[in-house]
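Hi V.,

Quick status before I head out on leave. The structure for the redesign project is tokenized and pasted below; the design run finished overnight.
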């Protein structure tokens, strides 16, 4: 086809919204800029979320006008705001067109790129701006379908080049999330116009206005707040280019500025330290019909429920997650290799937690040093209880008292940790010899804390050593993992129970842990 009208353009943009939304989770995971998490896919989807409700018109000009207004009002974060500016530039170029041909589409996208580039204070190569610029390199083709296909392919190649242009992307082995989002926009548009494939929008939850900024540039780390707003301009300022002084004023207040002006509205985004200065700056220009402040340091903690205390617990799977859930603890960092939980993962979990006191159970000796480092970096009240197994974590939580002070609970849990005996049983992966202890590959190994105390080719042969450690205790909890069948664990539990006698309660619990066949806690109540 040589031209498209308003209804076909609107169909294409609805498909574009659906395609971005269907890939929003993927885009969020790609984002490497945010502090501390990424919402690029969410913000791009949210910006276009009003398009399905835009009224149909035969005129592409009217459709673009209504779409631009909708995207502007719904945009959040840098990626959403840049998308809004792109549509504004597109509309300004094509505002007198009732139908669009291939040349119009290319020229409109060039105008959208220029507007987007101009709106960003410090534009960078390797971002969504680069992909927008590159998508038109193929120029106009004989038909609309060929033009859109060329734009989609050019955008895809551009996305693949982004890691070479932006070192942080290459370092993290990802492409730019905003650029990929723009590719998905073009892909949806092309599929709709060509009729090659129907895009079915996956079910999405309602949008939450509290989701914040999706890009936090390293150069802006000195700023504490992200402020976004929409100003309905006063009648005396109606028209284009009437708010230039406000743009300049905001430029002196912070960084990462995105500024959009339409005849009736101003949309802005800025990182700053003095949020009140922004409020004062916008007052002379009209009414703030939308205004939002995010804390860049703590990821808008206001949107999380405030608690007096909370726990962050490291686990290796659903088994122990379920056990911790029974104690009311849902904030778990779950990883099959949870002993490798990173500084960033822990710091993020702390930053997103809006509690007066945060107790951390590392449940691994390898995570304890990471926790110690975090204590030197965070301003929050964080208490680390240095548990080295998931079973130890359960033992100390059992001593937690909701009516006690944080200091009293810290003391109680540390005393509990000191009083228990923590054992681990695993299968030897190689030969071991130390004094009287000689262990062959495939034998069962018994650890007391992190010290090997016995080995045997028969699991039941370890019972006497455990019994010898049980002389002064009255409770034993045995957690069996994924690498031992339940019947064998039951036999072991029965044999140990018979060995220690009725004076000791012996309990078998499914832990599902990966690294050790059995985790055992000996304790005295």
């Amino acid at each position: 086809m040589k031209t498209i009208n308003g209804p076909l353009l609107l169909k294409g943009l609805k498909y574009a919204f659906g395609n971005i939304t269907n890939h929003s989770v993927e885009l969020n995971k790609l984002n490497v800029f945010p502090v501390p998490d990424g919402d690029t896919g969410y913000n791009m989807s949210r910006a276009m979320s009003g398009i399905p409700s835009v009224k149909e018109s035969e005129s592409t000009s009217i459709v673009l006008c209504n779409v631009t207004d909708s995207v502007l009002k719904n945009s959040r974060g840098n990626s959403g705001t840049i998308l809004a500016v792109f549509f504004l530039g597109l509309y300004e170029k094509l505002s007198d067109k009732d139908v669009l041909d291939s040349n119009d589409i290319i020229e409109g996208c060039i105008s959208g790129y220029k507007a987007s580039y101009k709106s960003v204070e410090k534009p960078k190569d390797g971002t969504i701006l680069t992909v927008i610029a590159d998508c038109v390199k193929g120029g106009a083709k004989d038909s609309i379908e060929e033009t859109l296909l060329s734009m989609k392919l050019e955008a895809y190649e551009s996305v693949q080049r982004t890691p070479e242009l932006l070192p942080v992307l290459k370092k993290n082995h990802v492409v730019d999330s905003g650029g990929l989002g723009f590719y998905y926009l073009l892909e949806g548009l092309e599929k709709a116009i060509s009729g090659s494939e129907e895009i079915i929008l996956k079910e999405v939850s309602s949008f939450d206005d509290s989701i914040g900024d999706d890009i936090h540039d390293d150069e802006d780390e000195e700023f504490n707040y992200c402020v976004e707003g929409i100003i309905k301009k006063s009648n005396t300022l109606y028209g284009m280019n009437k708010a230039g002084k406000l743009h300049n004023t905001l430029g002196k207040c912070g960084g990462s500025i995105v500024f959009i002006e339409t005849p009736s509205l101003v949309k802005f985004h800025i990182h700053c330290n003095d949020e009140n200065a922004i409020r004062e700056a916008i007052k002379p220009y009209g009414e703030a019909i939308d205004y939002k402040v995010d804390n860049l340091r703590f990821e808008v903690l206001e949107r999380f429920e405030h608690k007096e205390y909370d726990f962050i617990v490291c686990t290796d799977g659903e088994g122990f997650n379920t056990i911790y859930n029974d104690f009311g603890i849902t904030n778990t960092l779950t990883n099959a290799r949870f002993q490798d939980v990173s500084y960033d993962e822990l710091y993020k979990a702390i930053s997103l937690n809006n509690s007066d006191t945060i107790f951390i159970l590392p449940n691994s000796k390898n995570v304890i040093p990471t926790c110690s480092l975090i204590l030197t970096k965070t301003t929050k009240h964080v208490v680390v209880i240095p548990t080295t197994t998931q079973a130890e974590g359960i033992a100390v939580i059992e001593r937690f008292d909701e009516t006690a002070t944080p200091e009293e609970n810290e003391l109680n849990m540390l005393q509990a940790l000191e009083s228990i005996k923590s054992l681990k049983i695993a299968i030897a992966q190689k030969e071991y010899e130390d004094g009287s202890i000689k262990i062959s590959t495939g034998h069962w190994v018994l650890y007391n804390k992190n010290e090997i105390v016995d080995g045997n080719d028969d699991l039941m042969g370890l019972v006497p050593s455990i019994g010898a450690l049980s002389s002064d205790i009255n409770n034993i909890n045995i957690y069996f993992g994924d690498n031992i069948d339940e019947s064998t664990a039951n036999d072991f539990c029965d044999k140990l129970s018979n060995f220690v006698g009725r004076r000791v309660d012996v309990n078998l619990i499914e832990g599902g842990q990966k690294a050790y066949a059995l985790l055992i806690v000996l304790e005295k109540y």
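Above is the designed sequence. Residues 33-38, 203-220, 299-304 have pLDDT under 50 and may be disordered.

G. will cover questions while I'm gone.

Best,
W.
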